[in-house]
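As the next step, I selected for study a record pairing a protein sequence with its backbone structure tokens, which the following lines show:
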Amino acid sequence: MRVHRETKGRAGKGVTVITGLALDNDALARLAAALKKRCGSGGTVRDGTIEIQGDHRTTVLAALVELGHKARPAGG
């Protein structure tokens, strides 16, 4: 599972993207809801990835580790 920040195609607005999730759609939606609530931000599930609005990489990584997922930062 990788967590990175992306701005491409979003008019310069950054989102935190979580990829490499081996979960079904219902589990993805539940995880996305928990992460959005933890970050106090909006987001969506798109093409098997979770997108959280804003740069919340450290918060998302900490939350995923607490939930028992093996998450790593990606990119620089």
